[in-house]
């Protein structure tokens, strides 16, 4: 803040000259009025600018809060919509589960049943993943927009504050404020306030930036977690698909084994019964045709042709069924062809060549069918059945047309002499018998599909072999794991023992070497530390005493200087106060007393600061003395240890001297013994030579052992690294085993569920078998209604199997989707709670910022009121203080003291 420049037009007396008071009073009044007007306008501008800046900051903060709240509300609404959608999906799956149906191709094999479930699961997972990614991208965009808007708002606010600061630094022309020195003090206070406002703005900007960075980090982490979650879900889906396939394969194997073990005999027995019924019907039709030959030879011949054609078709179908049964099982094939051959012997003689060609085609078809897949077989059988039905219908139409034409001709030739009633009855019987035969042929064709199950046996055996191989590999891996665990344990024990031995050896060698060195160095360090501490304390005390002396001298000089100034002021006042009034003298005395009180306060504060510094230094000195005492105690303890070690060394020296004396005595004994035993000198020399060789050999062994110890150290380090690697591998393997155990438990649960479902199917099949027996009895009693009953049984079987398979697949799909939806709902609820907590925290922080801004506004108001009061005081004493030029210097000194106190604080 720049100081206001003041132009004084009064005439002052510097060397005791006279002053004209009347002109000065008028000029002072005019200057005071100008100064008051300028100050009023200045403070009005400052107040307006402050209100504007406060309004702008409030609008910025409110805008940020509203943007954050709107964003959070939108996110919460989106999450609630997702939760409602998921709930609706669950409700739809629970309610509309019974109306969904699968295609017939999906009912034939378990593998095709898994495909729509997987597609549905993936289709249900991918939209949620895409929505989450889009939401995270939208959040990032909104954060960027919010950051840009906040930066713009902060920029505008800073420009406004700079504008207010520039307007407040206008140079004014006056006289009273510059003379008194209060203008600079006010400017310093205002500058401190502006600095505080700038700091608050910077702190608010930093907090908002930190909030944005935190939110961006959370968004990026959430995005990464969503990607990881998607990968985990895909991995889980693949694992579940593999587990379900294995379970379904095992169930298929069990069902097919049971079906081939028990049901083949049942179906073959039924086929034999149906073939026997067909033979009986053939015999009945032949007997009817023979009885009718005597009355109607031509009519019988025609009908015989028709029946023979029908018999041929039936025999063809029957032979196809028998050939398929021969390909599926060899035991039951011997019974069916004999019956068919006995029933079709007459027709074989008439149409031998045509049948031979058909047999050749059938053999070729059988060889070709063995090399076909399951889908190709089904398509082939469907096409063959359609062709046979079409050919049969066309032949039946042709035969009916021929029969009606022949009947017309016959009735034209013979007239009404024929027994019409018998012919009608025979016609009805023949028609019914032909219908029953065609029905039996259709049943045989439909049941021929049973033979295709033999093709699955090879695939089932291969699957069993694969399962056995997997089980054996799993056992082998477990054994390897157990072996590796044992090896790791042995290695860890060996390493621990070797490390213990090495540590013992190294400790024993190092202790004796380090004790003396440590004691010597500790004693030297203690001496040096004590000297350094003494020097530092002496220097610090000297410096503090010098500072205290300097402060006391400065304060004494200031007091002397102030007394001289006051004396000069009083002399000038007494010299110039002869024409003045007594009120001015009172004002001067009041000013003098005020200034004396200010000086006393300043001196007291300086003394208080000096006392505080002395107390702090005293406390530090006491602490350092305590530390010094502790160091001396430690030094004494170390000296005691050194004395103990010295005593030990003396004792060892004495022991060495005693040993040397013993050696001397031994040497004397040895010389006496040598003199007495000169004869054994050669033996002793040889022994010494041998001992030298042994010592050399032992030294070599010692060097080798040292090298081996180094090698063992390296091996131990390598073994430790390998152990760490093995530990890491063991941790990974333990995790994999835990996952495998969890998967096995889940698979066992699913197997149990499938076994329960299979048992229910077996119960249903047992009920169906009972019903089929009842239908068989009804067929024996009522042969007329056999077609309708067989149709009903077939439809009932298909419906039951379809319903069971559909419900099982639906339950599996619903359970998997429900688990996925439940996990997703839990994740969404947790995220919503986190977003709410974060929003509450942001709101509380913003409320605190608003409260701080309000407090700053209140402080600005209090400062304005203080400035007004100071201005009133100056205005009151302005006509008196303008005559005293020394007062300005005193006010400058006071301002310097105040600024020094503010800086020290």
Task: State the main characteristics.
905 residues, mainly alpha, 16 helices, disordered N terminus
Report on the structure:
The protein is mainly alpha-helical and about 900 residues long. Among the domains are: about 20-100 and about 120-165 and about 180-250 and about 810-905; about 465-575 and about 580-675. The chain has helices at about 20-95, 105-110, 110-170, 175-180, 180-295, 295-330, 335-345, 345-350, 350-370, 375-415, 420-445, 455-575, 580-675, 680-780, 785-880, 885-905. Helix 12 (about 455-575) packs across helix 14 (about 680-780). The chain is flat. The two termini are about 20 Å apart. Residues about 1-25, about 95-130, about 170-185 and about 295-360 have low confidence and may be disordered.
